[in-house]
Write a structure and sequence with these properties.
seven-stranded antiparallel sheet; 10 strands; three-stranded antiparallel sheet; globular; mainly beta
């Protein structure tokens, strides 16, 4: 079972990166507040909606879902990561903010694994916390690197430098036993 895992060059090619930053890809300004009341503002492009938020036949939200799903699953297979079910898939784009990090949260209240693929080089670590919100690990972004961690870890993101962005593909999934 996955606890915390980092894999450089998880994906090998420039997947649609220019398209994500063009008029072809719609981004939605998202504000979330967690149990810690730390606001997080970012831009979101939903690929596959959470089961608990919609009907099964309405979960796919983007034309980019199928190609990104294929790339992600192929890369998981090559790295011996066993996927039972994809729970959610989302592109997140974060701009500079002066705070050290955003919303400390857990993605689902049930057993899952988080996957983050960094689609550009940037500042803005992924930060993992223990039950007392003490930092236990910082994962630095690197283009095409992936991080995986069990979903029971609270986590957050740091922010890029002024004028820069942090672009990631977030996937939550059930790990095959």
């Amino acid at each position: 079972m996955i606890d915390i895992l980092e894999i450089d060059n998880f994906i090998k090619k420039d997947i649609l990166f220019d398209e994500f930053l063009s008029y072809k890809c719609c981004w939605y300004n998202t504000l979330s507040v967690s149990k810690t009341n730390t606001p997080a503002m970012f831009f979101s492009h939903s690929l596959l909606e959470r089961k608990e938020h919609t009907k099964e036949n309405e979960r796919i939200r983007s034309i980019y879902f199928e190609p990104l799903k294929k790339i992600w699953l192929n890369s998981c297979n090559k790295n011996n990561i066993k996927v039972e079910e994809i729970l959610r898939m989302n592109l997140n784009l974060v701009n500079y903010r002066k705070e050290k990090y955003g919303d400390i949260h857990i993605d689902h209240e049930y057993d899952h694994v988080n996957s983050i693929i960094y689609l550009n080089d940037s500042k803005g670590d992924t930060i993992l916390f223990d039950k007392n919100n003490k930092i236990i690990r910082r994962i630095s972004p690197k283009k095409y690197k992936a991080s995986f961690f069990k979903g029971s870890y609270s986590h957050s993101n740091g922010y890029p430098e002024p004028g820069k962005i942090r672009l990631v593909l977030v996937t939550t999934f059930k790990e095959e036993k």
